[in-house]
Amino acid sequence: NINALKKLGLIFCDVKNNYEGAIILFDKVSSLDPSDVDFWASAARCHEKVGNSEKAKEWIETGSRLKAND
After folding, report:
1. Which InterPro entries match (predicted)?
2. For a surface tag, which of 2, 11, 15, 44 has the fewest beta carbons within 10 Å of its beta carbon?
């Protein structure tokens, strides 16, 4: 269930500070439904927290592009 994966990813990111775990879940969500842009900012924030600013930038750009196409 995509919604369950998103909720778990947000818990990992925002509550448990388990950024790598959250990234894995967000990557899974994006592979299942790349048009679901609600979680893109959280995914970018997790990438920033682990020091991967290039990947964070990619998530932000992709999310912005998808949102513009809505």
Report:
1. TPR-like_helical_dom_sf
2. 15
19-32 vs 40-49: helix crossing angle, rounded to 10: 150
d(CA 7, CA 70): 23
Answer whether 26's CB lies under 8 Å from 42's CB.
yes
DSSP state of 44: H
Q: Which residues of the chain have pLDDT under 50?
A: none
pLDDT at 38: 66
Residues spanned by the domain of 43: 2-68
**CATH code, domain with 34:** 1.25.40.10
What Å distances lie between residue 69 and 28, 42, 56, 57, 63, CA to CA? 22, 20, 20, 18, 10
| pLDDT at residue number 60 | 86
Residues in the chain: 70
